[in-house]
Design a protein that fits this description.
The protein contains 24 helices and 23 strands. The protein is of the alpha/beta class. It is elongated, with a radius of gyration of 41 Å. It folds into five domains: 75 residues, no CATH class; 107 residues, Beta-Lactamase (2-Layer Sandwich); 134 residues, Alpha-Beta Plaits (2-Layer Sandwich), CATH 3.30.70.270; 210 residues, inorganic pyrophosphatase (n-terminal core); 116 residues, Diaminopimelate Epimerase, Chain A, domain 1.
């Protein structure tokens, strides 16, 4: 039986209005009869005519009306199809697997494909993979580049299960009864405007002359003004070439303003101004070096300027002669290849000593800690701070978790002496019970929180002091009330020895304490062969006057047979990478302090002709320790920073967790090769 076409919705109601009106007219006609019979009779005639017309319209003209509605719907659907076909945006339909089913004219024109093209969409846009197809109730946006234009590709699922169920003809897999609609929005111009806006962002910076006073002292006074004038001219000309502005604040300080686009140019040139300034020479024995701190992408101009100040502090803390760029939380370093200039004046040491004394005087307890795997330099510096605290009659403690063989001879001297408290040395657990708001925590020989013996102590008190001779990196101890970081110094012990000279009048340093501090200097300078300056010898002379005995210290650090053999094995198995880089592995089995032995082996490898830098890897406690050494040609500190470590120009190191020796060696070689190719070493 043929199914009749039935109307529904508003159209069905509209066609029933004549019948509804007929009922209303009949009611009205009856009421007229009640008022006036003659009037009712007249109305009856008109009502009868309306009823006949309404019946004829509803039943006789109904098929014609339906035909007209169907014709309109068909034409309307065709119009919709034509509109979608000629839609100004590229539009396509994909099946559940991402294969193209249909494309509109704009999509065909953009891709240059035929209507019958039915391949995976990833063949046209490689950025679209199967994993990137939209999930249910998800709108997936992708950034793609096609024919030098930037597009935002929008994809979402279109469910067709209800349509299939209603058809009664075909079926589909319940899990795949959908299509994927795809739109392409051309954002080339938008991207260009965004990029242009980003390039025009304000960038501020600070430029300092590192060794202004020292350079002037090395030349005749009549020429000093000419030297400064030439440097001013070089700096102004350099930044004017990239549309930057330079304002001189003081005799050796400048303020910089430029656009981000200009900064990108400087990055490409790797800040050649660092080397250009060094070429200015009119008889000065010492080349002038500069440090630059740059801030960008802060919320306000004031914060951008603050970023520049922080960047400058980092540059100076790392020894100067470099550029530090602070982009939000990201910090990038450029330069820093030259030897740091030693400051002959000790004014800064005197100021820091007085500040340290004030902080210690205001608290009841002093807790000193260094880096993990305490070495002799850390131990000696801690002993010096311990003596300073005891001079002020404060309770003092030194945090050492696992004493190594390198410090045990010194440590035993204190433990076996009745003049020292048995609780002088504590572990992390004991230290956490001691530290409170009335405690000064002094960190020596490191400025990284994760390198300390007990990082938790840094959050248990507000009074933190940092004394270190390593260059600062990205991760530094925050909120220190006193930070004294001098990369020029040979060791933390040298810095502490200078502080003790100004800490208090008549401070008495005992022989064993002087031995410990002297030993730290001796070890870190490799018996006064590396990083040794005038102030290093002055500190050693001060300690010698305090009772340090060279022979006694030397006896303390004689090596046992196992350590000596391991060091010899590391030297014997060394390989030369790119002719000038000695790389070796130090065996750790049976050694109490293999990292110390590895460092000693790295020092010995520098005695080989042609070796510019040495790297010794040691596997200790599931961590690969790298000891890096150089004489003067290679900055091993920037190499170790690439591996997450740090240190000094000639002495540095890094720790690689979850690495095997082979993997760590390959990583080191790849880093060296990359830096050689880029000209960074």
């Amino acid at each position: 039986m043929k199914e009749k076409i039935k109307l529904k919705g508003q159209l069905k109601s509209y066609l029933r209005w004549p019948l509804i009106m007929t009922v209303l007219l009949i009611i009205m006609n009856v009421m007229l009869y009640m008022v006036e019979v003659k009037a009712g009779a007249i109305a009856t005639g008109f009502t009868a005519v309306y009823i006949v017309a309404a019946v004829l319209l509803y039943f006789h003209r109904r098929p014609s009306i339906l035909n007209e509605l169907i014709s309109f719907a068909t034409q309307y659907g065709q119009v919709q199809k034509n509109l979608m076909q000629s839609f100004a945006l590229p539009y396509a339909l994909l099946d559940a697997d991402g294969k193209i089913l249909w494309m509109n004219d704009e999509f065909l024109f953009l891709t240059g494909k035929e209507k019958r093209y039915r391949k995976f969409i990833g063949n046209i846009f490689p950025e679209v993979t199967s994993e990137k197809l939209p999930l249910p109730d998800e709108v997936r946006d992708l950034e793609i580049v096609y024919q030098e234009h930037s597009y935002r590709l929008n994809m979402k699922r279109v469910e067709i299960q209800e349509l299939l169920d209603a058809s009664g003809i075909v079926e589909a897999d319940k899990d795949r009864s959908y299509l994927i609609s795809m739109y392409l929005f051309d954002e080339t111009e938008l991207k260009r405007y965004i990029r242009q806006k980003d390039e025009e962002k304000l960038v501020t910076g600070l430029l300092y002359l590192d060794n202004y006073e020292e350079a002037l002292e090395s030349m005749e006074e009549v020429r000093s003004s000419l030297l400064i004038a030439l440097i001013d001219r070089k700096i102004n000309k350099y930044f004017a070439s990239i549309d930057g502005v330079v304002k001189k604040l003081e005799k050796d300080k400048y303020f910089l303003v430029m656009r981000k686009k200009s900064l990108d140019i400087l990055k490409e040139k790797k800040f050649s101004i660092l080397e250009e300034v060094k070429t200015v020479n009119i008889g000065n024995e010492m080349a002038v070096t500069i440090s630059i701190g740059i801030g960008m992408n802060a919320d306000t101009y004031a914060h951008t300027s603050e970023y520049a100040r922080i960047a400058m502090e980092l540059a100076l803390g790392r020894g100067g002669d470099q550029v530090v760029v602070k982009d939000g939380n990201n910090i990038t370093y450029y330069g820093g290849k030259s030897q740091m200039m030693e400051k002959t004046t000790r004014v800064k040491a005197r100021v820091k000593a007085h500040a340290l004394k004030e902080f210690m005087s205001s608290k009841d307890k002093v807790v000193v800690m260094g880096h993990k795997i305490t070495d002799v330099d850390t131990f000696g510096a801690a002993i010096g701070i311990y003596r300073a605290a005891k001079t002020l009659e404060k309770k003092a403690y030194i945090v050492i978790n696992t004493p190594t063989s390198s410090i045990r001879p010194l440590m035993d001297g204190f433990l076996h002496s009745q003049e020292y408290d048995s609780r002088m040395f504590v572990n992390s657990h004991e230290a956490k019970e001691i530290v409170d708001d009335n405690t000064v925590v002094v960190v020596v020989d490191t400025n990284r929180p994760n390198y300390t013996e007990c990082e938790e102590l840094l959050s248990m008190t507000k009074t933190i002091v940092v004394l270190d001779h390593h260059r600062q990196g990205k991760d530094v101890i925050q909120n220190a009330v006193l930070s004294y970081i001098e990369p020029y110094a040979s060791s933390a012990c040298e810095m502490v020895a200078e502080i003790l000279q100004y800490f208090a009048d008549g401070i008495r340093i005992r022989n064993i304490e002087a031995d410990s501090i002297y030993a730290g200097i001796m070890i870190d300078t490799n018996n006064f062969l590396t990083k040794t300056g005038v102030r290093t010898f002055e500190a050693a002379a001060f300690l010698r006057r305090c009772g340090a005995d060279v022979t006694r210290v030397r006896k303390l650090f004689r090596e046992n047979v196992e350590d000596y053999r391991a060091k010899g094995e590391a030297i014997r198995n060394a390989e030369l990478f790119r002719e000038h880089f000695a790389i070796s592995v130090c065996p750790s089995e049976g050694l109490e302090s293999p990292t110390v032995v590895g460092a000693q082996a790295a020092n010995e490898l520098l005695n080989v002709i042609g070796v510019r830098a040495s790297f010794v890897l040691t596997d200790y406690r599931n961590t690969i320790y790298i000891s890096a050494r150089s004489i003067d040609e290679i900055n091993v500190q920037v190499i170790m920073e690439r591996l997450g470590g740090g240190g000094h120009l000639n002495i540095a190191g890094a720790q690689l967790e979850h690495y095997s020796i082979a993997e760590a060696t390959d990583t080191l070689k790849r880093t060296l090769q990359k830096m050689l190719d880029e000209g960074d070493i």
